[in-house]
Amino acid sequence: MHPETTPDFYRTHSPMSDPGTAAPLLAHLPQDDLGALCRIVQTVYRHYYDSTAFPLERRQEVDLRRAERLWQRIAALDARPLTEPRPPEQRLIGCCRDAALLLCSMLRQQGIPARLRVGFAAYIRTVPGFHVDHVVLELWDSGRWHLVDAEQDAGLIAANDIQFSVHDIPRDQFLAGGQAWLAVRDGRLAAADFGADPQEHFWRGEWAIRQRLLQDALALNKIEYLLWDTWGLMEGDAPAGHLGWLDTVAALTTRQEIDFAAVRALAQDARLKPPERFMTYSPVRPFYETTPDTL
Hints:
- By secondary structure, this protein is an alpha+beta fold.
- It is built from 9 helices and 10 strands.
- Helices cover 30% and strands 15% of the residues.
- Strands 3, 4, 5, 6 and 7 form a 5-stranded mixed beta sheet that branches. Strands 8-9-10 form a 3-stranded antiparallel beta sheet, with no helix packed on it.
- The protein is globular and about 55 Å long.
- The termini are far apart.
- The model has no long low-confidence stretch (mean pLDDT 93).
């Protein structure tokens, strides 16, 4: 068996996905029912885009980094079992990374191989041809990896006019960071067609693609930081001298049969390895320097 298709590495928790002291909350969840677990995510979580009326103390939940803290906050907002839907005001405020991490935490707790993938979705309808900055989960099942979007409930599926299963997203509908990088580098797609929103010019283009490329490589190593945790080549303009290395990272993380040993080695490369301190460009409060253990 090719090293990549041995899923055992992804059966166990990372520091970010481990529920820790909140593990009892996950003790009696549905088994072998992906739909039920996705519905739990959809009823304990809400996107920070929809939380502008909330006080800053609540909106800062989007900066919680570890699943343990996410689950603790979910329980503090509503102490009922996770299988009982919460009203919107009692749901955790987060982003797509948090939705994917919560699902990942539940699956790994059951010994099911799962990992986050960081990239861009073509199926979130804004402007035709635009790829929206997004994070999904990749689940190992029936001998292959499936892309799963835990955020897409019935309302979003209808709003986005999604005609496929969001538990098995076609590979041309979600491009991992490396796929987007290579598609732009060889001229198949335009960098301007990637970002948070087609009307926003700040978080868009080459910088956004480069950051998601590197974060996807980290996620494949079970390093699932916040989307706004930033260091090294994730910052600003990429020095020309590193373009070849970025091309290599993109190729390693997007091959049909990933060279698992080579991808694991990336985590020790000084150009990618998380430093002891880095910047967090939070969307809800002033930017700050932090460590992996903060929040």
